[in-house]
């Protein structure tokens, strides 16, 4: 048995991730961690935002290395715990990931292996990268809330698809086609929404079909909607799809997955440090695949603020 101390890794395990796959595979994952000599203490989540509480409390108790075992949403919660603690600067905490979720888009950005042993070996090597983080304020139930994120925030149609996908996950449904299925289902009734958008002080009005504010490139289980994103440049990369016909959407699904969507005539791209969106309360927002609330929204970038364990970085 590997001896534990404050230099050990804390593993935050979301047993519900991947439709319960994490719970089934945790014995195998823990054996691999032991096999490769990685000392760890497991902590299991049992409710939403529990990973945030575990991360915050364990850092305050003296730990500084965290392995997230789950999906992008679990990593998002852990990031919020890192920002919620007061003992260390956020870059003094090291975050690794073993992906067992359905999307795993953040891990894809940093070429973290999808197979468990490859992910464990990546953590063992401890090659780190310091990336930007985002902070969004939004509204829900008449109150203002804030959430940190490290990949992509989506608004409009994309957020609607995420909301429906998450409801299905809560009912035990999962799989790589879940998001793809909900694109078609949600498209039937969705309508573009008008909004006033301000990026670094520049104001303009648009009818938003979908909008992504990105630090990373990938979302929706492999879509490349912000291919111009650079994770440590101190800027958001923004892709705005304006009002577009349903048949036009269907005809261009492939372009969402190969990154060429930004060349479409109904698409605009921007970069900026701050983004404000003031529009209909029906304009929803999600971050890192987690449904949050609605507008108005304010985004701030926090440059080079999170230290992550990375594989060979994607170009």
3D structure, described in words:
This protein is α+β, with helices and mostly antiparallel strands. It folds into two domains: about 10-125, Probable inorganic polyphosphate/atp-NAD kinase, domain 1 (Rossmann fold), CATH 3.40.50; about 135-305, Tumour Suppressor Smad4 (Sandwich), CATH 2.60.200. It is built from nine helices and 16 strands. The protein has helices spanning about 20-35, 50-60, 70-85, 105-110, 115-125, 155-170, 180-185, 245-250, 255-260, and strands at about 10-15, 40-45, 65-70, 95-100, 130-140, 145-150, 150-155, 195-200, 200-215, 220, 225, 235-240, 265-270, 275-280, 285, 290-310. It has a six-stranded antiparallel β-barrel. Strand 8 (about 195-200) and strand 9 (about 200-215) form a beta hairpin. The model has no long low-confidence stretch (mean pLDDT about 90).
The number of helices is: 9
- Gross morphology is globular
The CATH architecture assignment of the largest domain turns out to be: Sandwich
User: How can the largest sheet be summarized?
Assistant: 6 strands, antiparallel, barrel
Show the helix and strand layout.
Layout: E1 9-13, H1 21-35, E2 40-44, H2 50-60, E3 65-70, H3 72-84, E4 94-99, H4 105-109, H5 116-125, E5 128-140, E6 143-149, E7 152-156, H6 157-170, H7 178-187, E8 193-199, E9 202-214, E10 218-219, E11 223-224, E12 236-242, H8 246-251, H9 253-258, E13 267-272, E14 274-279, E15 284-287, E16 290-309
Parallel strand pairs: 1-2, 1-3, 3-4, 4-16
Antiparallel strand pairs: 5-6, 5-16, 7-9, 7-15, 8-9, 8-14, 9-12, 10-11, 12-13, 14-16, 15-16
Helix pairs in contact: 2-3, 6-7
């Amino acid at each position: 048995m590997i001896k534990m101390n404050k230099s050990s890794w804390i593993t935050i395990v979301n047993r519900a991730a991947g439709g319960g796959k994490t719970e089934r595979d945790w014995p195998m994952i823990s054996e691999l961690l032991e096999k490769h000599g990685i000392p760890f203490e497991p902590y299991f989540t049992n409710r939403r935002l529990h990973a945030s509480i575990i991360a915050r409390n364990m850092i305050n108790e003296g730990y500084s290395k965290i392995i997230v075992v789950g999906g992008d949403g679990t990593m998002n919660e852990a990031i919020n715990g890192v920002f919620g603690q007061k003992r260390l600067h956020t870059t003094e905490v090291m975050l690794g990931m073993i992906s067992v979720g359905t999307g795993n888009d953040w891990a894809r950005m940093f070429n973290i292996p999808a197979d468990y042993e490859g992910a464990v070996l990546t953590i063992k090597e401890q090659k780190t990268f310091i990336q930007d983080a985002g902070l969004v304020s939004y509204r829900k139930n008449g109150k203002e809330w804030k959430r940190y994120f490290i990949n992509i925030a989506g608004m409009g149609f994309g957020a609607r698809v995420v909301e429906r996908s998450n409801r299905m996950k809560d009912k035990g449904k999962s799989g790589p086609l879940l998001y793809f299925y909900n694109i078609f289902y949600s498209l039937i009734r969705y309508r573009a929404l008008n909004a006033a958008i301000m990026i670094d002080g520049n104001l303009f009005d648009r009818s938003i079909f979908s909008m992504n504010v990105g630090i990373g490139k990938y979302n929706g289980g492999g879509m490349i909607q912000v291919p111009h994103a650079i994770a440590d440049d101190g800027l958001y990369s923004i892709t705005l799809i304006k009002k577009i016909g349903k048949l036009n959407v269907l005809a261009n699904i492939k372009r969402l997955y190969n990154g060429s969507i930004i060349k479409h005539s109904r698409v605009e791209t921007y970069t900026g440090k701050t983004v404000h969106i003031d529009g209909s309360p029906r304009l929803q927002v999600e971050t890192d695949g987690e449904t949050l609330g609605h507008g108005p929204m304010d985004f701030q970038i926090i440059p080079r603020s999170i230290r992550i364990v990375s594989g060979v970085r994607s170009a």
